């Protein structure tokens, strides 16, 4: 049996060990303690660890009994560090105040600048967060690659490069489409595919599988599983972004609405809305100072247009497709069981 909690604990231990000042000696200047502490606090506090868990499961799908787990856990921890870098930058782009129930990195850094004006503090916080995100990217490479063999690196590095390409394209599409007022469902699907289906689920699986030297059949089965799970995960994320409890999700319900995110929920609602509902959505979705009571109006429209019901139906369909892919004879039974648990948790969650 594959113990998912044990995998998370091993990854957390590897991340905590990486932040040991002895480990970092020579890689960071002595006067950079603030940088280290802020990234350390962000990485080690909260997070689902879904990407490192999937990376480990991808490796175990190819090599169920690895001789040494240290390179595997290091690779998985590197993906979590990469994700931290992406989130740090993403929060600057989205102007988010909180992440995981705590102030975002750019807000923390703004508070560390003494004596400046509010505008100067904001500028410094944003710039510092970009730099800290870049540092986390460098650390991600160090963590992921330092224990892999040359042969493993030859297989893994192209997968990591592809992951970075995909998530960057997804981030740009997300940014470019925000506030545009479009009902382009194909674009919303593309954003889900690049930002989540690839980045969150399939690519971590494929990176682990490449390190374990997986067969084409194993990689194909992981792809057929990963893409629908990723789509279901993002749809649930979008629903939680509007209907979730901020005390549980760690993010305000106003964030997506304020940014005018081009989500599958909104494209469906715009298509299904009555003329009066469409006008109200146009007024509120993307409003920079939207209030919680105005988000309530958006939520009422999403419910009235059948958008929430449609999203739940799609989540269930994607979930079924993912579970069907696990019937592959090429996946070890204990890995398939663990992936089934991951799929269940991806769609049945409150944060």
Automatic annotation (TrEMBL):
Family annotation (CDD domains): Trans_IPPS_HT
Stored SUPFAM superfamilies: Terpenoid synthases (SSF48576)
Cofactor entry: Mg(2+)
Keyword vocabulary terms for this entry: Magnesium, Metal-binding, Transferase
PROSITE patterns: POLYPRENYL_SYNTHASE_1 (PS00723), POLYPRENYL_SYNTHASE_2 (PS00444)
Protein family according to the UniProt entry: Belongs to the FPP/GGPP synthase family.
Name of protein: Polyprenyl synthetase family protein
Organism: Saccharopolyspora oryzae
């Amino acid at each position: 049996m594959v113990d998912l909690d044990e995998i998370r604990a091993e990854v957390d231990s590897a991340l905590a060990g990486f932040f040991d000042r002895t480990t970092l000696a020579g890689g960071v200047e002595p006067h950079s303690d603030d940088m280290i502490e802020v990234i350390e606090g962000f990485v080690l506090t909260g997070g689902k660890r879904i990407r490192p868990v999937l990376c480990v499961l991808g490796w175990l799908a190819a090599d169920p009994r690895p001789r040494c787990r240290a390179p595997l856990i290091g690779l998985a921890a590197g993906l979590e560090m990469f994700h931290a870098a992406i989130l740090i930058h993403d929060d600057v782009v989205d102007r988010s105040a909180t992440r995981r129930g705590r102030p975002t990195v750019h807000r923390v850094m703004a508070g560390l600048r003494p004596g400046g004006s509010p505008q100067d503090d904001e500028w410094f916080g944003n710039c510092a967060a970009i730099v800290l995100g870049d540092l986390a990217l460098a650390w991600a490479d160090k963590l992921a690659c330092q224990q892999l063999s040359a042969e493993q690196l030859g297989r893994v590095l192209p997968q990591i490069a592809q992951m970075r390409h995909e998530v960057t394209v997804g981030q740009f599409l997300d940014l470019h489409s925000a506030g545009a007022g479009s009902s382009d469902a194909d674009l919303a699907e593309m954003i889900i595919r690049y930002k989540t289906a690839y980045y969150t689920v399939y690519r971590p699986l494929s990176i682990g599988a490449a390190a374990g030297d997986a067969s084409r059949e194993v990689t194909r089965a992981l792809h057929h599983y990963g893409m629908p799970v990723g789509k279901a995960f993002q749809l649930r994320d979008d629903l939680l972004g509007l209907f979730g409890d901020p005390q549980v999700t760690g993010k305000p319900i106003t964030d997506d609405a304020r940014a005018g995110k081009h989500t599958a929920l909104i494209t469906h609602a715009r298509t299904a809305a009555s003329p009066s509902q469409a006008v109200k959505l146009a007024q509120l979705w993307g409003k920079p100072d939207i209030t919680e009571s105005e988000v309530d109006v958006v939520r009422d429209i999403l419910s009235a247009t059948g958008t929430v019901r449609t999203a739940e139906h799609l989540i269930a369909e994607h979930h079924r497709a993912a579970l069907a892919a696990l019937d592959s004879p090429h996946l070890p039974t204990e890995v398939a069981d663990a992936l089934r648990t991951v799929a269940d948790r991806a769609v049945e969650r409150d944060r």
